[in-house]
Amino acid sequence: MSKILVIAEHLGGKLNPSTARAVSAAAAVKPEIIDILVLADSVEAIATEAAKIDGVSRVLTIARAENAHPLAAVLAPQIAKAAAGYTHVFAPSTTFGKDVAPRVAALLGVAQVSDVMSVDASHTFKRPIYAGNAIITVEADAAHAVVATIRTASWSAAASGTQSAPIEALSLDVALPTHTRFVELKQGKSDRPDLQSASKVVSGGRGVGSKENFEIIYKFADKIGAAVGASRAAVDAGYVPNELQVGQTGKIIAPELYMAIGISGAIQHLTGIKDAGTIVAINKDAEAPIFEVADIGLVGDLFKLIPELEQAIG
């Protein structure tokens, strides 16, 4: 039977929703055990939150001062050691997971399976290739541990219940590298919903025209309680910071509602919204590729249509 170890992603003492999505993927394997591994300097609050996720057998913790910040070079040797006896090691396909999982795979001497979007069998998975234009079936060697990153946009988060899984502290004898050190974390702060977990996202593209004009996107997003995203063209033009980029080289998201405003719809952008529920497009070019995937399309000047939508919403 399969035994799966899910690596918890967290920041500021709070568990990232991507962890519960990785648990959903683990459950699809129908394993005997799903354990979550929490690595931090202070693990209690994170472990307590992780223990409430439905389907979790145990929460294992490694509390070390070196784990205060998620440095892949430091975490990977500990994860590889903790993975002994497990058939699978899953991490979310986020910046965190993409950083740490390849190192874990290398230490375990296996090839990584990336961006798992569905599970066919315990060692057979589907993942996107060619910017999401094709889906490939990958079969991992059953004789070795599977290290995989989970495409979080393709999985709903496992529910959190009232039950609490047991929490156990691990004590591992692992020599940690000293060539990598934490300097500082720079991240944008916003009162808006988180882009990767928001149920509604309003994105602007090159058609918005300028950094100043992008205020219309922020204002409309705030009106409907949505997160704000952007196309790569808007980011490259300096309209918004790159943490708002949606697409193949940005964030892969799956909101219930996605509004693409002034976005033409390059394939790299469409890759990032492949799993969105309802897609609404506003563009003055009726031939824009975004209309091919949109559920609702409005052709016209966004600077006239957005105020009209705001007025209609009330």
UniProtKB/TrEMBL annotation:
PROSITE patterns: ETF_ALPHA
InterPro entries the record matches: DHS-like_NAD/FAD-binding_dom, ETF_a/b_N, ETF_a/FixB, ETF_alpha_N, ETF_asu_C, ETF_asu_C_CS, Rossmann-like_a/b/a_fold
Electron transfer flavoprotein alpha/beta-subunit N-terminal domain sequence ranges: 4-186
SMART domains: ETF (SM00893)
Pfam families: ETF, ETF_alpha
CDD domains documented for this protein: ETF_alpha
Alphabetized UniProt keyword annotations: Electron transport, FAD, Flavoprotein, Transport
Record-stated family: Belongs to the ETF alpha-subunit/FixB family.
Record's protein name: Electron transfer flavoprotein subunit alpha/FixB family protein
Source organism: Dyella lipolytica
